[in-house]
Amino acid sequence: MTRPMEPADAAGTAEVPKPPTGVGDGRELLQWLRTMRDRHPVWRDGTTGAAHVFRYDDLLQVLSSPDVFSSDFSGIMPPPDPDAPNFTEGVLTMTDPPRHGKLRRLVSQAFTPRMVAQLEPKVAALTRELFDTVAGAGDFDLVTSVAYPLPVIVIAEMLGIPPADRELFRGWGEALLSTNYELPVGAVPDGTMPEHIVGQLKDMHAYLLGHVQDRRISPRDDLISRLVTAEVDGDALTDGETVSFLNFLLLAGHLTTSLLMGNTLLSFAEEPEQGKAVRADRELVPAALEEVLRHRPPVVFQARVTSRETELAGVTLPARTPVMCWQMSGNRDERHFPDPDRFDITRRPNQHLTFGHGIHFCIGTPLARMESRIVLNELLDRYRSVDVGTPVYYERSPEIFGVKSLPITVQPA
Question: Which InterPro entries match (predicted)?
Fold first, then answer.
């Protein structure tokens, strides 16, 4: 049943409720997002000057218009810390056309759907190995035992990184994630980093750069080699651009699968009949994962900046205005999704915004979907019952929604 709409105040003249201090289990944040969708669909924060966009159609307009809503924040961010490694050189998510198109074509030559498909047997084997480490245990933590380490190991395999160095990747992933821990929900990151994080990122940059330079001299059968040898119209990736992509792959690649698996079990715990339906019919697994992505998206929002003055939903946005795109809100918009707060694995269509839209649609989507499908099927194969325990610990970053620890109690099949 669709909830009646409240009158909108696009100009933002009515009092705006304060956002919750953190994402947590999402309940307070979802209530705030519902209020903002109804009363302040496009809201300019008088303190920061940033605009916040909450409705699906408005989000689609922003994400579909890179000429107006730029991904390049270099013009409004402070100069980068000269002591910190530059991980923004040529990052796809922070680059505009025409350079973005060439970068994406170069990366796509190496990071292909065929390559992801060829990885599937290896991912399945790695998943079984991780579950084997907790075989016989009636209780274990799904995230720390399987969902978190799996994508890190997979990425290391893709890059041709020695198994002994996998723990380095896990530590660097944590460091990258923690850079925004102290920011409030919806805040615009200012690019500054604590000194101890800078040190870890320096180590990571040097490590990845070493592998990139090695592959230029001695290519192998791995993703780094394919990246450094990719060419479009005589153009190739620089060392800095290659390292930036590898950094992004590490952060985004390991987070999405880890958070998605935890969110899937939480969704099934809240709606057990939906979980039973998936167990009874494995053909429902892909659709169930898509509904989890809509209902409990790992990514809360993403940012853009206006390249010129524009108008959105009746609100004038000056040039150089940061724009926070609340995908989590768009995924719950009653104007687009009937009964949006209901978790429904049979929902059709399900055009959620979790992986973005337009030219910046997430290039790693096939990998995240494949890993999550394999983990969920393996879990259902091994155990006839899976119950979520306590305590559940949520991630602290204001940009993501999910758990960092999820104890479960299982009974073998």
Answer: Cyt_P450 (IPR001128), Cyt_P450_B (IPR002397), Cyt_P450_CS (IPR017972), Cyt_P450_sf (IPR036396)
